[in-house]
Design a protein that fits this description.
107 residues, mainly alpha, Helix Hairpins, 79% helix, 0% strand
Length: 107
C-alpha cells in the first residue's frame, strides 16, 4: 500500500482545502497534456488522481486511515516477533557455548 498522503505531499492531518490545493497544484504540473508522450508523467498523474479520489471523500479517507493504522500495528508486531526470536537465539547460542566451554575445559 502506497502512502497517499506522501503522493500529494501533505501530512495526514491536512484539512480539505489544503488537500484540494495540493492536488490541483500537482495535477496541473504533471498533466499528460503538458507532457505529451511522457509515460512517467502520465503514471504520476494517475497516482495523484487516485490519491485525491481516495482522500477527498471523508468516508474513503477514514477507511484508508484505518487500514494504514492496522498495517502499522501488524508491522510493529512482526518486528517485535523477529526481535524476540533473535534475542532468544542469542541467549541460547551464548548459553550453549558457555556450557560446551565448561565441559571441554572440565571446569
Amino acid at each position: 500500500m502506497s502512502n497517499l498522503y506522501g503522493v500529494l505531499g501533505v501530512s495526514s492531518n491536512v484539512d480539505e482545502a489544503a488537500l484540494k490545493t495540493a492536488y490541483r497544484r500537482l495535477a496541473k504540473a504533471s498533466h499528460p497534456d503538458l507532457h505529451a508522450g511522457d509515460a512517467r508523467a502520465e503514471q504520476r498523474f494517475k497516482q495523484i488522481s487516485l490519491a485525491y479520489e481516495t482522500l477527498g471523500k471523508p468516508e474513503a479517507r477514514a477507511t484508508y486511515d484505518a487500514e494504514r493504522a492496522a498495517a502499522r500495528r501488524r508491522a510493529y508486531r512482526e518486528l517485535r516477533a523477529v526481535a524476540t526470536t533473535m534475542s532468544a537465539s542469542f541467549v541460547l547460542t551464548v548459553g550453549w557455548g558457555y556450557f560446551a566451554a565448561k565441559w571441554w575445559l572440565g571446569v
